[in-house]
Write a structure and sequence with these properties.
Blueprint: H1 17-37, H2 39-59, H3 68-102, H4 104-110, H5 115-141, H6 145-157, H7 167-191
Helix pairs in contact: 1-5, 2-3, 2-5, 3-5, 6-7
């Protein structure tokens, strides 16, 4: 049995503080890019809370005109929490379990990267989505058609908390209608003359 004449030694890389910080930033950046590129992560953490907010705060609370403002505020807070929990669960817990099952943690451990950079990147990713979520929900709800339709109806019955001119709600509805018509016309034009089946 042949033995090596030189004993194997572990050489720890020497890093400056700037290198160390750069390593953490890069790991967080690529963790964020990875999660943005996974459609189910982006959909589950951004679209689902928004969808539930629109459904419960705008569509289903239409019959409850007296407490509608309180209901919308309540739903914004609770759906924001739902979004934060989803970002944390899917961005940290599920991602960690999947990468462990696929063997990526062994690869990370074999690399010279400190394991703290891996976990810090996961936490930064979850916190970023969590901070963005409530602000995103509040802004996104104002561009969706159900919000503008409900505001028009509330203006008519005199129950709107923010009475704005009707045209301010009609313009976005016209814009969304034209956008959807354009998409439908493009689909029709693209499929014209095609044979299926």
């Amino acid at each position: 049995m042949a033995t090596s004449p030189f004993p194997a030694t572990l050489i720890a890389p020497r890093r400056t503080v700037a290198n160390f910080v750069e390593l953490f930033v890069k790991e967080a950046k690529y963790e964020m890019l990875k999660n943005i590129r996974i459609p189910i992560y982006a959909i589950s953490t951004i679209v689902f809370p928004l969808m539930f907010y629109v459904l419960f705060a705008i569509v289903l609370s239409a019959g409850n005109g007296i407490n509608r403002g309180q209901s919308a505020t309540y739903q914004l807070a609770t759906m924001g929490c739902f979004g934060v929990m989803g970002a944390s669960l899917f961005g940290f817990g599920v991602s960690l379990a999947m990468e462990r099952g696929q063997g990526w943690l062994q690869v990370k451990r074999a690399s010279p990267m400190p394991i703290a950079a891996y976990f810090t990147a996961k936490m930064v990713n979850a916190l970023t989505f969590s901070v963005v979520m409530p602000h995103f929900l509040q802004r996104a709800a104002q561009v969706l058609p159900p919000y503008h339709i409900s505001q028009l109806a509330l203006n008519v019955v005199g129950m709107s908390r923010n009475p704005t001119p009707a045209w301010g709600h009609v313009e976005p509805l016209i814009g969304v209608t034209l956008l959807c018509l354009g998409i439908a016309a493009y689909g029709y034009w693209r499929d014209e003359g095609q044979l299926y089946g």
